[in-house]
Design a protein that fits this description.
globular, Rossmann fold
Length: about 140
């Protein structure tokens, strides 16, 4: 893969723990890749399959959801709902030949500021190695 490829990555983050950690990472001077666009949601349980698929359709090379740890969701089961939706979406991504490995779910809790930055870097490295989203530039998934 060309060294020039810089992936476009969308990170959906829960308002309660993960988004706060993203904010604190900036305050503490911890950097994470600038190619990661953070979208704050009230709870990861509000993320629908269509949101995840639309991100890929709109050109994201990778998408990840950062939720509160299981058992610590402010809305009780939102992160469990999100987990099920991600599993379903991964199957669709494989069927579309985009690849389920481009979608991940990670968990974080208040105080894990360095962990947030590490997740962003790991996802960027992974997607950089996979290369561009095949939907881009009229790839196989786009022809389906």
């Amino acid at each position: 893969m060309s060294e020039a490829f810089e992936p476009t990555i969308i990170a959906y983050t829960c308002h309660f723990c993960p988004y706060e950690m993203a904010d604190k990472a900036g305050e503490q001077g911890l950097s994470y890749p600038t190619n990661v666009s953070i979208i704050e949601v009230p709870c990861t349980g509000r993320i629908d399959v269509i949101h995840l698929l639309r991100a890929f359709q709109d050109g994201a090379d990778g998408v990840y959801v950062v939720a509160c740890k299981e058992g610590e969701c402010h809305h009780k089961t939102g992160n469990l709902v999100a987990k099920k939706r991600l599993q379903y979406t991964k199957k669709i991504l494989d069927d579309l030949e985009i690849g389920s490995e481009r979608l991940e779910m990670r968990y974080i809790m208040t105080g894990e500021v360095p962990h947030f930055a590490r997740i962003a870097q790991e996802m960027t490295d992974k997607i950089r190695a996979l290369g561009p989203n095949p939907v881009k530039n009229g790839g196989a998934a786009h022809k389906a």
